[in-house]
Amino acid sequence: MSALGNGRGAIEILVLLGAVAALIRPLGAYLARVFSGERIPFLGRWLGPVERAIYRALGTSPEREMTAREIAVALLASNAAGFALLYALLRLQGILPANPQGLPGLPAHTAWNVAMSFVTNTNWQSYSGEAALSYLTQMVGLTTQNFLSAASGLAVLAAVVRGFARRGTDRLGNFWVDATRSILYVLLPLSLVLALALAGQGVVQSFSPYATVHTLEGTSQTLALGPAASQIAIKQLGTNGGGFYNANSAHPFENPTPLSNALELIAILALPAGLCATFGRMVGDRRQGRALLAAMTILFLPFLGLALAAETAGNPAFDRLGVDQQAGALQEAGNLEGKEVRFGVPAAALWATATTAASNGSVNAMHDSFTPLGGLAPTVLILLGEVSFGGVGSGLYGMLLFAVLGVFSAGLMVGRTPEYLGKKIEPYEMKMACFGVLLPCIATLVGLALAVATKAGTAGISNPGPHGFSELLYGFASAANNNGSAFAGLSANAPFYNLTLGIAMFLGRYGVALPALAVAGALARKRTVPAGPGTLPTHTPLFVFLLAAVVVVVAALTFLPALALGPIAEHVQLFSAAR
Fold first, then answer.
1. Residue 105 gets which letter from DSSP?
2. What's the rounded Cα separation, in Å, for the pair 450 and 540?
3. β-pairing, 419-420 with 423-424?
4. How many CB atoms lie within 10 A of CB 192?
5. Calculated CA dihedral for residues 73, 75, 77, 80, nearest 10 degrees
6. Could you tell me which of 157, 180, 151 has the C-alpha nearest to residue 62?
């Protein structure tokens, strides 16, 4: 009997998703207070002076609000500065302190890719963290960017939500204030609590040099140490995903126990889901937030079920080899290749789908070892645009662009000017929404085409046939949608991939954020119009399913041929051979 059949896997999943659901309302209310500039009890007493000092250093104040254009400039300027500093740190780490292993600086093309990856909240890693990066680079470079990139997404979201909520103004808040408050009152305190909990579970937090130990077999082994717990906390809470170690959250020093696995998984989904409740509060209609959350959930659950069913069913190729895939006293049923036995198949399927739904590139199992349909599920969740539930901030403003497309489609069907939250959706908003939705798709397909058409691209494929194509499709989808996970069979630490994937990351981040800000700026200047007989209510089940359908249709029309050449063809090939 499989883990799914005996109910254990289903119970694990229900408990974890139930914990996330229980956090949505309190987190949503708290985040709304942060974005509204309200004083935060207890934290405000200690962090208030720090907050005001930061404003003085930046030359800004909460009273000075910005236009959409000014927020876009602030986003690009702050991220460009972060990119330059991280790139310099990566290149120069060989002569900098806190490098007990004496690791050299990274090559120019790798440093470019890593800097772009962490600035855009993608956290793609084509290198081995413990073998390539010093403690200083991990802490000052990567961990800092984990905070800043997540705060950038939250600041952009706050501006976008104000654009939907306000009337007759061109002011959407202050980027510097929203980013500062996001770090001080949301990301830092939550990361501190989570880091302490993870350290209590055995996640390492050390500045000692790597340790050499003697094994029972009589050999020696080097154990990579380092300040991991502090980075792991923000990597999950900020939907970053970049691991301290090469094996990421499958590494026992990053994720040692089932409890640490549960805490990290909850941290990945809690803020993106809670922001839906924040949206409802800030626009003055909590039903709107619940509708967006329902659409995200509808998109997520079927692919969770697909991954779980595919992985618990096992691999028919193993059956032909006589490999036992049935449940027994020492193992559970299913495809155990690439899985951590301390977590099991259901937890691996949940993690793979949750992280690809939430734009978090961490893994606790190797996606490259999933069955074709098991790998199809996380691939499609990325290709949907990382809006279910998406990255911190970026998932929700991406979903709002789809909401604009949804009401426009409904308006076409009834012959009425479309409206969303009482604001008319006109040609400018539609153009910007289409641009934000389609640019990651274009970046994915153009990068994929270049990879399969060039020697530099095909040189990175370790598997011939459909699976190799799946590796390429997943890689460019992950970069263009700012996820960061990969099929491990793709050898991406080469100039071609570091350059092309870095460009895809740039387009996927700013090609969505900037159009979302443009839509928000245009809507903020408009007055609301009263609802009429032809107005489509945007809080009903009808709109929820319409919104989910728009997301699926866009992805299907764009990527179905590519999916047919990759995971679908591989599935047919695998089961045809089984017969």
1. P
2. 43
3. antiparallel
4. 13
5. -140
6. 180
Give dist(CA 304, CA 373) in Å, integer.
Answer: 11
CA dihedral sign of residues 287, 288, 291, 296:
negative
pLDDT(4) > 70: no
Average pLDDT score over residue span 518-534: 90
**CA separation for the pair 119, 9 (Å, rounded):** 36
Three-state DSSP class for 481? coil
Give ∠ CA 153-159-160 in degrees, rounded to 5. 85
Burial 328-348 (b: 16+ CB within 10 A, else e): eeeebbbbbbbbbeebbbbbb
Candidates 239, 230, 81; CA nearest to 154 is 239
Question: What are the residues whose beta carbons fall under 8 Å from the beta carbon of 74, sequence distance 6 or more?
Answer: 66, 175, 176
pLDDT at 447: 97
- Does the predicted TM-score (pTM) go above 0.70? yes
Question: In this structure, are residues 490 and 463 in contact, taking their beta carbons and an 8 Å threshold?
Answer: no
Task: Say if residue 6's pLDDT is above 50.
Answer: no
Q: What's the pLDDT score for residue 489? A: 87
Write the CB contacts of 63 (distance below 8 Å, at least 6 apart in sequence): none
Residue positions counted in the chain? 579
pLDDT of residue 56: 96
pLDDT tens for 279-295 read 999 999 999 999 999 99
Where is average pLDDT lowest: 83-87, 337-341, 393-397, 453-457?
337-341
Alpha-carbon distances, residue 48 vs 39, 184, 193, 375, 483 (angstroms) = 8, 9, 20, 46, 34
Name the helix (H) or strand (E) containing 423: strand 423-424
Residue labelled with tokens 């020697």: 455
